Amino acid sequence: MASTDWRKSVVYQIYPKSFNDTTGSGEGDIRGIIEKLDYFRTLGVDYLWLTPVYESPMNDNGYDISNYYEVNPQFGTKEDLEELLEKAHDKGLKIMMDIVINHTSTEHHWFVESRKSRDNKYRDYYIWKDGTYDTPPTNWESKFGGNAWAYDENTNQYYLRLFDITQADLNWENEDMRRDIYDMINYWIDFGVDGFRFDVVNLISKGEFKDSEGPGKEFYTDGPKVHEYINELNRNTFGDRDIMTVGEMSSTTIEHCLKYTNPERNELNSVFNFHHLKVDYPGGEKWALANFDFLELKRILMEWQVAMDEGGGWNAIFWCNHDQPRVVSRFGNDETEENRVLSGKMLAIALHGLKGTPYIYQGEEIGMTNPDFKRIDQYRDVESLNAYSILRDEGMDASLILDILATKSRDNSRTPVQWDDSKHAGFTEGVPWIEVSDRYEEINVARALEDGNSIFYTYQKLIQLRHELDVLTYGSVEPRLMKDEDLFVYERLYEGDRTTVIANFRNREVPYPESIDAEGEVLLSNYEDRQDVLRPFEAMMIYGQSK
């Protein structure tokens, strides 16, 4: 890195189960990450974020942790993780771990004890409430479908589970539970990790337990004590350490995210929000087919950019992760190889000029696409399988549901990384836990590295620019042409420097906007020359002096 300032960092997200398998098990492992460390050096990223590798029954692919202190044997051993840290650090790379502190697996020993009796000392580590056999305490809905309460016959009470029935919500009102969480996080800091991504951390404080006119989000999202808890977490763990933190924020607000990330409040470094990734949810409904609303995408991105900049907060900026479809299939065009490459580069340039910490999800840097699964037995994701069952019960045609899953399922991003054109895309010598995309022969890392004009090298250049140009890190954000239905345009301004990003989101020529100053050096473009029009999916980043 050109600077020790974490704000100049770029993070690469690894979903270990689908990254690289060295054992033939059909699932990726920690040694598979070690094997690819030089690849990350070539790309130029600073941090590697690993989704959970702890012991887990894997009902939600590791976000249901049964032991915070041990590594899941399917990924390897604690010694493997120790070796990963050592070798990554030797290569100038840092490791960010994923921690789930809103809930645990029902197989965690705290919960096993908790459900034994109402007076067990771990009972209050979780949220237990009375109801009747067929009437839960509230009508809140689980984010994975169904009621958010699960009945326990042994103690004749319900426990809260905002996600899967095997993911019981922790009770942050309990001081002993909080202290155990802090001890666990300090254990991993002492182990040598460099950062944490906190899963759905803004849900840890619950408010009143009452019926809702909706799914119940207002009673647990950015709850009444959430800032108090996160400040306490900061003070008892990473606050005085060189640790980078990012919180995943579910259905949050700008006001809260300014509080989460303003350095003076001692909470977190940065936040993920997902509002810009709901612009293809018609009426807020995920499980429906719809084109994305381009003007709304720009409005949300720029609203957050400007407000977080002016309020001293800090964004994580991203298109993809393990819970989102592939962006080139979603907001770009993957119908032809030419369009896939052009739109993949365009999306990269459009995002990486923004203010915040850029996140790259595995395979994004080579333009991996949605796999276009045709059968329900190709899916593994609990949320997708639940949605299929619910929509079928509601009478929706199976073929329509499959079309929806092909665009919205989390499994779209969880297919194995396509390393080369050999069997199973070089991911495994065994049988992959989920099928490899059929397009691996044309879309793979080996081919991308050989092609100097590939999407990979656009990402490499964008990372280099992030390290070198202060205007990309510290500059203010100036939205431009917000009502233009084709172009995404903004400027970054800092100490006399200016970068202008222009991105044509359409598969057609668009006139160059007269109101945008075209003077300056083109730092990066997905075309080899400049014309008076912006060609299909054309994007460029222009560097000059502000006037």
Q: How are the strands of the largest sheet arranged?
A: 13-12-11-5-2-1-15-14
Separation, N- and C-terminal Cα atoms = 30 Å
Radius of gyration: 23 Å
- What is the helix tally? 15
Dominant shape: globular
What do you see in this structure?
The chain is of the alpha/beta class and 547 residues long. The protein contains 15 helices and 22 strands. The chain has helices spanning 30-35, 37-43, 78-90, 109-114, 175-191, 226-236, 254-261, 294-310, 327-330, 337-352, 382-393, 398-408, 445-450, 455-468, 470-474; strands at 11-14, 47-50, 54-55, 67-71, 94-100, 103-105, 128-129, 149-152, 157-160, 167-169, 195-199, 244-248, 270-272, 316-317, 357-361, 476-480, 487-494, 497-504, 510-511, 521-525, 533-534, 539-545. The chain has an 8-stranded parallel sheet with strand order 13-12-11-5-2-1-15-14. It has a 5-stranded antiparallel sheet with strand order 16-17-18-22-20. Strands 7-9-8 form a 3-stranded antiparallel sheet, with no helix packed on it. Helix 10 (337-352) runs parallel beside helix 14 and helix 11 (382-393) runs antiparallel to helix 12 (398-408). The longest helix is centred in the middle third of the chain and has 17 residues, at 175-191. It is globular and about 75 Å long. The two termini are 30 Å apart. The mean pLDDT is 96.
Secondary-structure map with pairings?
Blueprint (H helix, E strand, L loop, with lengths): L10 E4 L15 H6 L1 H7 L3 E4 L3 E2 L11 E5 L6 H13 L3 E7 L2 E3 L3 H6 L13 E2 L19 E4 L4 E4 L6 E3 L5 H17 L3 E5 L26 H11 L7 E5 L5 H8 L8 E3 L21 H17 L5 E2 L9 H4 L6 H16 L4 E5 L20 H12 L4 H11 L36 H6 L4 H14 L1 H5 L1 E5 L6 E8 L2 E8 L5 E2 L9 E5 L7 E2 L4 E7 L2
Parallel strand pairs: 1-2, 1-15, 2-5, 5-11, 11-12, 12-13, 14-15
Antiparallel strand pairs: 3-4, 6-10, 7-9, 8-9, 16-17, 17-18, 18-22, 19-21, 20-22
Helix pairs in contact: 10-14, 11-12
